[in-house]
């Protein structure tokens, strides 16, 4: 609903849906992937958000799903 309310004011709304991101919280919870190098890093999420922000005003991304390519 925020998307539809904000469109009239040229405000773009994007929902970011990351899979499990390798953070200290995930490690402490015991759900971190075995291979940290293959896991999604916070930087990956930041890059996706930056890409959405850099889009020209004539286009928008309403959602971004970020999944780990090789979880095992």
Task: Describe what this molecule looks like in 3D.
- With 72 residues, the chain is α+β, with helices and mostly antiparallel strands.
- The chain has helices at 2-6, 24-29, 42-54, and strands at residues 15-18, 63-66.
- The protein has a two-stranded parallel ribbon with strand order 1-2.
- The longest helix is centred in the middle third of the chain and has 13 residues, at 42-54.
Entry keywords:
single chain, 72 residues, alpha+beta, two-stranded parallel sheet
Q: What topology does this entry show?
A:
Blueprint (H helix, E strand, L loop, with lengths): L1 H5 L8 E4 L5 H6 L12 H13 L8 E4 L6
Parallel strand pairs: 1-2
Helicity, in percent?
A: 25-40%
What Rg is obtained from the alpha carbons, in whole angstroms? 15 Å
The main β sheet shows up as: 2 strands, parallel
* Spatial order of the strands forming the largest sheet: 1-2
| Residue windows where pLDDT falls under 50 for at least 5 positions | none
List how many beta strands DSSP finds: 2
Number of helices: 3
Beta strand %: 5-15%
**Terminal-residue CA separation:** 37 Å
Based on secondary structure, the structural category is alpha+beta
Q: Helices and strands, in N-to-C order?
A: HEHHE
């Amino acid at each position: 609903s925020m998307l539809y309310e904000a469109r009239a004011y040229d405000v773009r709304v994007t929902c970011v849906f990351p899979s499990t991101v390798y953070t200290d919280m995930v490690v402490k919870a015991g759900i971190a992937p075995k291979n940290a190098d293959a896991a999604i890093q916070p930087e990956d999420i930041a890059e996706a958000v930056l890409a959405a922000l850099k889009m020209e005003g004539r286009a928008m991304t309403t959602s971004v799903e970020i999944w780990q390519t090789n979880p095992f």
